[in-house]
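Entry:
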Amino acid sequence: MATMADVARRAGVSIATVSHVLNDTRPVLPGTRQAVLDAIDELGYTHNTLARSLVTSRTRSIGLAVSAISNPVFTEILQGVEAGALEHGYSLLIADPHDDPGHERKVVQLLHERRVDGMIIAPSAAPDALLRYLEQHDVPTVFLDRLVDAPAGSGFRHDQVCAENTAPMAGLVTHLAERGHRRIGLVAGLPGLSTTAERITGYRHGLARAGLPYDERLVAHGDSRAEAAEDATHRLLSLGAAPSALVTANNAMTVGALRALRDRGLSVPGDLALCCFDDFSWADLFTPRLTVIAQPSKEIGATAVRLLLERLTSPHLESRTVRLPCAFVHRTSCGCPPSTARAEGSEGSEGSEGSEGSEGSEGSENEIPRKGSES
C-alpha cells in the first residue's frame, strides 16, 4: 500500500507539501499541487482520514439533521449541502429527526458522538432541548430553512440560512387579489415553525396591500404535510362563504390541497385559483401548471456549508443570518391565460426558472387529475 512518503518521492516534493495538499492547510503552487495529485492517482494512495483525525481532533465530517428528506425542497437542499461538503473535502452523516423534538435531540446527540466537526440542522417547531444540547457541548451549528432564537443570555453562537418568506408570500396574495379574488384562503404550515409564522405574516401583508380584511377563518393549518393539508382544504371549502382562491404554504401541502379539490370535483383555475409556495421540478407537468414561489434550495444548502466552515475556522464570529431571494414562477393555476403567464414569467429573478417554467403547453389548463391518473 502506497504511503505519503511514496507520494512525496514520486512528486519530487516533501512529505509536508503532500500533507498540505491533502489537508488544505497551506497554499501550494498549482503546478506542485497537480504533481502531488498525479502521484496520488498513479500510486493509488488512500489518505488515512481516521489517523489524521486522531492528531487534529477533526474528522472532516458534517452532521446533517433534516426532517422529511423525501420532501422535494429538502432533497434539493441536501444536494446543495452534499456538493458544498464534497468541494471542501468533507463527508456527510445524515439523520432524519422526523420533526419530533425528542427524536431530534437523540439523533443530534448520535451525530455528535460520531465526532462530526459541526452540524447543519433544520430544527423542529420546539427545539429547546436541541438548543440546550448544542450550547452545552459548544457544537458549531448552522440552522437552515427554519430560524431559531438562542436562549437569552446563553452566548451560544450559531448561523442561519433561509429563503425570504414574507414578501414572496405577500406577492402571491397580491397577484390573486389583482385577479379579482376577495376571499383568499391559506393552507398554512406547522405552528411553531418560523417559516409558518413568516408566511402567515406575508399572507396578511398581501391582504392589507390589496385592501382586503384578514379573516382568521380563511387560514387553516395543514401542518406542513399532505394529509393534514387535505383536511385543512376540506375545512376551508366547507365554509359558508368558501374562498375563491387558495394559497398553499409548501409543496407537500399543495399535493394535499389538490387531492381535496379533486375529491370535490373542483377544477383549477375554473372553480378555484391556486398559488403555491415551493416549486416542484415537475410543477409544469400538472394540469393546470402551477404558479409558485421557487426557493433557491440548492443555494441554501451550499450557503449552510460555507457558513459552517467559516465558523469552524473562526468560532468566535458573531451569529449570522443569511436570507436568499426567491423567484415568482408565473404559470396558469392562478387563472392567468398562458400567453400572459409566459410574458410575466420571463421577467423572473435572474437565474430562476421563471422563463423556462412558463412556456405554453397543449391541451386544457383547468382540470385537476382524477384518482388513478399518473399525476
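Residues 138 and 190 are 29 Å apart (CA to CA).
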